Amino acid sequence: MSVNNQSIKERIAKDINLFEENIKRVKKDAFANQNLDIIIDLAIRYYNDAKYYLEKRDYFTSFGCINYAHGLLDAILKRGGLE
Q1: Cα separation of 27 and 3, whole Å?
Q2: Rounded-to-integer distance, Cα 53 and Cα 65, Å
Q3: Of 6, 12, 42, 74, which residue is 20 to 30 A from 68 by alpha carbon distance?
């Protein structure tokens, strides 16, 4: 089954938007005492990388970056009892 670049781009954009919604649920102040601010920063960096590579049409790298960002964010949300 082949997938065209437009559908891949749309999937990545959807994942980026989902990250933007979920990161709002995480507040650095609420997690600072748990030393999670470093992980939050890494998640945001991966998110920014995903947007950069999407713009460059490197869909493989962009998809990998946004998945790492979501993984880190999921761990934070589960640790904080928000998931």
Answers
A1: 37
A2: 9
A3: 6
